[in-house]
Write a structure and sequence with these properties.
Elements: E1 3-8, E2 14-18, E3 39-41, H1 52-59, H2 75-89, H3 95-105, H4 110-116
Antiparallel strand pairs: 1-2, 1-3
Helix pairs in contact: 1-2, 2-3
Amino acid sequence: MPNYDFVCEDCNKRFDLFMTYAEYGKKPPTCTHCGSQKTRRRMIRVRIGKSEESRMDSLGDFSNPAALEGLEDNPKELGRMMRKMGTEMGEELPAEFDEVVDRLEKGQSPEDIEAALPDLGADDGGGGDGMPDF
């Protein structure tokens, strides 16, 4: 049976369901966290293998430490850099990563994000500051 990825529109959590081809589209997916049927299918990323050297080349200016100076004072640029680095990693990142990057790209400061999302990174073994170690 195929594994399908969904996002609950009520609790905003991701979950997977195993369904037969016959069930898909006929049996409404139910959130495994809150039981809601208000869900949508989540399209997963397609992975393309790249060498580490190719990834570093794709990062351009961000591979230069001088280019990272002042990012803490520019949330939009920090968000842009994090999104690009996340894309270049070629790995599945947690939904929280996208949440943080979306907020940064809208200009929200890291401190405001941490205050708005106090449980962020609480069980990922992060650096103890509440923010996940990406």
